[in-house]
Specification:
The chain is α/β, with parallel strands linked by helices. The protein folds into 2 domains: 197 residues, Periplasmic binding protein-like II (D-Maltodextrin-Binding Protein, domain 2), CATH 3.40.190.10; 94 residues, Periplasmic binding protein-like II (D-Maltodextrin-Binding Protein, domain 2), CATH 3.40.190.10. It is built from 17 helices and 10 strands. The strands form 2 sheets. The chain has a 5-stranded mixed β-sheet, with helices on both faces. The chain has a 5-stranded mixed β-sheet with strand order 7-6-8-5-9, with helices on both faces. Helix 1 crosses helix 5, helix 6 crosses helix 16 and helix 14 crosses helix 15. The N and C termini lie far apart (38 Å). The N terminus is likely disordered. InterPro entries: Peri-bd_TauA (IPR010068), Solute-binding_3/MltF_N (IPR001638), SsuA/THI5 (IPR015168).
């Protein structure tokens, strides 16, 4: 993480800073939305300008490489709406960042994975090796959970904090032995490496992960229509894909748009989409309640155990809000 983002990350704990940043948000006519390179159906709606049309707002889309960077930007007030994984979400909530999870974007499966050099054949072979991962990301959480499952002390491996683009460069130089990451970095590493475990496997071991859309609470309270419309566009995109995934994937225009926003190769997109789940409106209503609160609490407890957060909240319900999805149905 850059020095600037580190400063922002630490700065979010100052209520005065957050209050000052909040005063800059008055109406949803110029909104900054942080997105990542995750392959998912709603990227088509983003490419087509559907979000702008539905919200009647000007949206400044900013691409980030990790959830930790998104959280830092949201904390600073630079971003009002952001796409993050469950691990950075849990870290943010544990630190008291005033945000709400208003939609579950993805239930992560095989689209995030640990790729290793061909010489690594079993988990024990990781001991002493260099493993790259974006810190405080879903893949970081999954890596630590996998090591715990394999009974490998994290101190016995060299875990290095790198952004996805840095992972690609480090892999190509031969500087690292393994990486737990998502596409396009994952796909590039797989060209000369092999998968040792995926997040679908880690989820079955008791550490599921997901991606979510979050919004600053101050912005949401002033602009509920924007958040509802944003959720509605996303759910429509998921419904279109879930209704007939094969037909959706057969549409070359869809693949080209997703590729342009994510960097994934068009021929890889089908496999990446199939590696995750995209909850519909009914599922969202069930998820945005006790299930997600429990998942965030469990993730936070794990992060505290690993020394990634100093403390946990007594209740994570204030960071999960289902009213926008209900209004969007």
């Amino acid at each position: 993480m850059s020095t600037l983002n580190k400063a922002r990350w630490l700065g979010w704990l100052a209520p005065l800073t957050l209050a000052v940043a909040a005063t800059g948000v008055h109406a949803a006519d110029d909104v900054t939305v942080a997105y990542q390179t995750t392959v998912e159906p709603a990227k088509v709606a983003q490419a087509d300008g559907v979000y702008e049309k539905a919200t009647h707002s000007k949206i400044n889309w900013r691409k980030f490489e990790s959830g930790a960077e998104v959280i830092a930007a949201v904390a600073s007030g630079d971003v009002q709406v952001g796409y993050v994984g469950s691990s950075p979400l849990a870290a943010a909530a544990s630190r008291g960042l005033p945000v709400e999870t208003f939609l579950i974007a993805i239930q992560i499966g095989s689209a995030e994975a640990l790729v290793v050099r061909p010489s690594i054949n079993k988990p024990a072979d990781l001991i002493g090796k260099k493993i790259a991962v974006p810190f405080v990301s879903t893949t970081h959480y999954s890596l630590l959970a996998a090591l715990k499952h394999w009974q490998i002390d994290p101190s016995k491996v060299q875990i290095i904090n790198l952004r996805p683009s840095e992972i690609t460069a480090a892999w190509q130089r031969g500087d690292i032995d393994a990486a737990y990451v998502w596409d396009p970095a994952l796909g590039k590493a797989k060209e000369t490496g092999k998968l040792l475990v995926t997040s679908a496997d880690v989820g079955k071991w008791g550490a599921p992960t997901f991606d979510a859309w979050i919004v600053r609470k101050d912005f949401a309270s002033k602009n509920p229509d924007f958040v509802t419309a944003f959720a509605k566009v996303t759910l429509k995109a998921y419904a279109d894909y879930n209704a007939n995934p094969k037909a959706w994937i057969a549409n070359q225009a869809n693949l080209d748009k997703v590729s342009r926003l994510t960097g994934a190769k068009p021929e890889e997109i089908a496999g990446l989409l199939e590696g995750n789940g995209y909850p519909d409106a009914t599922q969202q209503s069930n998820l945005l309640g006790a299930n997600t609160v429990k998942a965030v609490a469990a993730t936070s407890a794990f992060l505290k155990e690993q020394g990634k957060v100093d403390s946990v909240q007594p209740d994570y319900a204030p960071w999960v809000e289902g009213k926008f999805v209900r209004a969007a149905r």
